[in-house]
Amino acid sequence: MAGLIILAGGKSSRMGQNKALLKVGEQTGLERILERLSPLLSDPILVTNEPHLYEGLPVQIIADNYPGRGPVAGLEAGLVASKHDWNLLVACDMPFVSRKLARELLARRGDYECIVPMRAGRAHPLFALYRRSILPTVQRNIQADVLKMGAVLDASRSLYVEESELGQVDDFEDALFNMNHPSDYEKAVEKGLDGA
């Protein structure tokens, strides 16, 4: 079994409000992520610097060990806290995450350390699998002020999985949809009303 690490540490400055708690349909984005992925992944961890906002959710709530250093610091905190060798990292602003895509990434673990979906030539490191063995690399990068997720992938045994290799994942595009701006949230609400 693999673990689940959800990042909710950003300032949501472009959105103007907390993205994790925005409702899409009857649930918040965070609740949707937990409902969709909990059957496949265990011991969910929420990395946030505002723990009081998430009290009562069925997650272990932790703070960044390196506050203000972005997603790579959230990955570091999650890997330190996790009991699992492998963990799926998910950003809190992805309300249509796909269990099918997560299952396909898990099936490719092998001898890799990072397994990352690709769409239209772009890697998506905020819906990707990470092995705990990368923790020293992540920590070195943070201490050296190298904060791009791509630098972690470049320094690790990474497998990039192209959309064309995932024909059975029929919700690939929606799975990687994220809400950065109010217009993205409007689209998410429309999709949610359509049953996505």
TrEMBL record:
Its cofactor is Mg(2+). Its main location: cytoplasm. Signal peptide: none annotated. Its EC number is 2.7.7.77. InterPro entries: MobA-like_NTP_Trfase (IPR025877), Molybde_CF_guanTrfase (IPR013482), Nucleotide-diphossugar_trans (IPR029044). Mg(2+) binds at residue 93. Pfam families: NTP_transf_3 (PF12804). Keywords: Cytoplasm, GTP-binding, Magnesium, Metal-binding, Molybdenum cofactor biosynthesis, Nucleotide-binding, Transferase. Transfers a GMP moiety from GTP to Mo-molybdopterin (Mo-MPT) cofactor (Moco or molybdenum cofactor) to form Mo-molybdopterin guanine dinucleotide (Mo-MGD) cofactor. PANTHER family: MOLYBDENUM COFACTOR GUANYLYLTRANSFERASE. This is Probable molybdenum cofactor guanylyltransferase. It comes from Ammoniphilus oxalaticus.
